[in-house]
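In the current project phase, the collection of sequences with tokenised folds has grown. One resulting record follows, to show the layout:
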Amino acid sequence: MKFMMFVVSDAQPDQPSDESDIDLWVDPLDASGKRIIGDILAPGSESTVVKVRGGKVLTTAGPFAETSEVILGFDILDVADLDEAIEIASRHPMARNGQLELRAFAPWDESA
């Protein structure tokens, strides 16, 4: 099963972040093939929202929704099931400093 894991900041971390911790999480997962790709994202203030209304492309600078949580990055995991994804997410450094949101990839239905 493939999961998108969003790395989300939190206003009340359990402990301070240590940037070196991420390599200890990433390296074994990359070596095992459980982590397909992952990266950090630019701040939401640098995002662009795109929509089409009345046949016109409309863009808005910055994040669409006002929220106290911010998506900092993502990882795509290829694991046996949700339990394995949860176990992997629980070892991510941001599990102590923020939160991780797991979403399974939905089957692509070409008839829809």
Summary: The chain has three helices and six strands. Residues 2-104 form a domain with the Alpha-Beta Plaits fold (CATH 3.30.70.1060).
